[in-house]
Design brief:
The structure is a homotetramer of 201-residue chains. The first copy, chain A, is built from 9 helices and no strands. With 201 residues, chain A is mainly α. The first copy, chain A, is elongated. In chain A, 34% of the residues are buried. The structure holds a DNA duplex (31 and 31 nucleotides). Chains A, B, C, D: This is TetR/AcrR family transcriptional regulator.
Chain lengths: 201, 201, 201, 201
DNA sequence: GCGTAACCGAGACGGTACGTCAAGTCTTTGA
DNA sequence: TCAAAGACTTGACGTACCGTCTCGGTTACGC
């Protein structure tokens, strides 16, 4: 006996689910996160509001689902040419281009908002969107460690954050433009560190 | 060139302004950003709604004003004991504690949301809130350069971002807890970089 | 051809409609027409504002509906004792009493205001409220014509107005009190006219 | 002990008074009574709101003042050609034309609303606007009594109402158009009455 | 001829109500 | 049988005015 007349997932209409996700993505691109409404999504999807409320707890959750759907085929690995700096720069430059594309930026920024507000969404976003990307960095760095290109005693995850954190911040704050030069400098600095290579001695 | 019959700032009631800022801060702490309403602020402040709309364009702007007011006395400099790592760790540990304090965290997180949504707020937030803090790091790092503790050819601002970016990211994503250990590791890694200090030694 | 995605009248909640009408009538009696507010009606009726806006275009229209509802059972005929003067006086005296009753007067006066302002309401008021009452007079006068008591060449409708018009004006203007004597005199004068019965000749 | 620090009428600005009256009349013609606002009048007149509140208790009172001002030169008498019917018809036809003029109709209708709502205005309206007009009818009818044209035992004031009441009613209700034919019929019927002139002849 | 007391314009203030929009719940209807 | 359609209550939105108040400035009177 279900506690709350739980919906029967088996009978779920895939057509509706699809339409709702598409509507949510296209609307958030047009109007931004906080003008995104359940009513609007329902109307655009040609669906009753209840169909949304039945399956998602909040508009943030809808957005998260919609977003993850578009990136099913996450390319989980970074290239490995043997030179870590080159590989990281290549990937980060591509990411720069992606985050400068308005069509991609709008829903991503919306998700960020949804996430900061709602720790439910936060968990999903972290594990489904952020984690795969980060893990690819971690793997590549670990490979570099095995090749002796990176010091053994550093934590690869923290190292990944050292690169991705400043990148994300600059994108969020819009404080300075995201450029390829920025990507390159960031990688270089992360690899080298602040301290002089050959201290006095 | 008057934009729209601008209100006369000279006649502005300081009592109201104060009350509105306080109400905004206390409410955002209680209910979170997206349950924060202009009506609620007006009611709590004992003020007509129009008095808010007259002086601020959005609730994000109110929040920004309210927040900046509490940090007028920005501590603009970092300590300088001569050892950069020690100084950065000390400050970052203090920041960790601050960002773990729920009373501080709520309005700050709210501001982040306001900012990601609204590039108007974004600019104000960056220049009034982020910039002073970042600048203190920049100054300290430049001092370290003068002392020969940091390589001459790095950009101090980018270096500051290298530390603050990962920190902000971890706080926003709630992916892992903010601890003193994290602060220390972050500083160490930023100073040293990923590459082995003494390659092939 | 529905103008604007017209609501589906079949699904209309009769409970809400009833409550709104009752609330409107009781409130207008307490506060007068221009202190009557949609918000007040909604609150008193325990109903959302939107439920009012969905079905009525203005507070005048609500009032008109509410008022007509109370007089569904319009007694459409005047007594006919064979003596027109007697019958008219009897009815007009009753009307005097009715219009001196504050409980009746308030909403009626309010409707007058709504009507003078708004020709939409004006038409409804005329056809649903005024017309039935006037028609009863017309019928009785026509009967009197058939009985030879009233001249054949007068227009019964104009005759009805000859009696009701002065009555309504005195009520509206509050210039002099509405009394039974006034009713009697009015009927007498309307029947006899100003001219001497037996002119010189 | 002054009740409310009454303003000093001697120092009143006639320029402002004039401007307010003109603004009130022109605005009520453009927007109707209930869209007429004190703020609007003040703005149009180039006057502070307080200047209105200082001298008038309500917008109805302003309107009444404004209206009476335009009819200072009240034509206090009806023509007397010796034939009452002719004279009454002439005047009533002129009144028909006046009340069909939109420029005149709008403020007059507005005043009616103000009056039905507010018994303060009602008294002023009756005595300053209605009374002079009615009195002219009363005088003319009394003259006709002296000339033997009208029965001695009728009340001239009631007689005046017998004509003016139906006229006002038809104008207010917009139930049927105001025409010269209506004016003529009304006068004829009022003079003759409903009963046959020569019963049983 | 010089305060000084008023009215004046302007408009900010704490409020109320507007008419709209959307949230989230509940009921009716059709396939 | 359940999804759609959509009416319902609730409540915030941003706007328009309310009537009160305070601000300089400008008369115009009384000393």
């Amino acid at each position: 006996m279900p506690d709350k007349t739980a919906p029967d997932a088996a009978r779920r209409s895939q057509r509706s689910r699809q339409a709702i996700c598409e509507a949510a993505l296209s609307l958030v691109g047009e109007t931004g996160y906080d003008k995104l409404t359940i009513e609007g999504i329902a109307a655009r999807a040609g669906v009753g509001k209840q169909t949304i409320y039945r399956w998602w707890p909040s508009k943030g959750a809808v957005l998260l689902d919609a977003f993850t759907e578009t990136m099913e085929a996450g390319e989980g690995t970074l290239p490995d040419t043997g030179d870590l700096a080159t590989d990281l720069k290549a990937v980060l430059r591509a990411t720069v281009d992606e985050f400068n594309d308005p069509a991609f930026q709008a829903p991503y920024r919306a998700l960020y908002v949804a996430m900061v507000n709602d720790s439910e969404v936060s968990a999903g976003f972290t594990s489904k969107v952020m984690e795969p990307g980060t893990q690819a960095y971690v793997d590549r760095i670990r490979a570099a460690q095995d090749a002796g290109e990176v010091s053994e005693d550093i934590d690869p995850r923290l190292a990944a954050e050292l690169i991705l954190g400043p990148f994300a911040q600059r994108w969020l704050l819009r404080s300075q433009p995201l450029t390829h030069e920025f990507a390159d400098s960031l990688v270089d600095m992360a690899l080298t560190g602040l301290r002089p290579r050959n201290p006095r001695a």
